[in-house]
Design a protein that fits this description.
The protein is an all-beta fold. 0% of the residues lie in helices and 50% in strands. The strands form two sheets. Strands 2, 4, 5, 6, 9, 10 and 11 form a seven-stranded mixed sheet that branches. Strands 1-3-8-7 form a four-stranded antiparallel sheet, with no helix packed on it. A hairpin with a 6-residue loop joins strand 5 and strand 6.
Length: 124
């Protein structure tokens, strides 16, 4: 079955940039919409961004619009989250998730498969 592995998390200063990667294996990437979620200590998991299975439709949480960009490279079986102008409130564990045959969205419920997460820490 599908497996997802995130990478790219790090500690950066306010205003810095990071690019997260989500590597898919075990299935055909074109079947899945992919979402990025994050969870900070003591908070619920929240949707950050998503991209549909064709790569033509994307969505972003209001808190990251204009700063984050999601993209997918089918040949590399990878979905990226480019994060610019990072703020301390972006600090969280970031997860990617896959929705088989669906449109994804910014809620966790449709997603069938999840990665293990990667830590992003933004200092002020």
């Amino acid at each position: 079955h599908l497996q997802l592995v995130e990478s790219g998390g790090d500690s950066v200063q306010h205003g810095g940039s990071l690019r997260l990667s989500c590597l898919l294996s075990g299935s055909t990437m074109g079947y899945y919409a992919i979402g990025w979620f994050r969870q900070a200590p003591g908070k619920e998991r929240e949707g950050v961004s998503c991209i549909d299975n064709t790569g033509t439709r994307t969505a972003y949480a209001d808190s990251v619009k204009g700063r984050f960009t999601i993209s997918r490279d089918t040949a590399k079986m990878t979905v990226y989250l480019q994060m610019n102008s990072l703020k301390p409130e972006d600090t969280a564990v970031y997860y990617c998730a896959a929705d088989y045959g669906g449109l994804g969205g910014l809620r966790p419920s449709p997603y069938d498969f999840w990665g293990q997460g990667t830590q992003v820490t933004v200092s002020s």
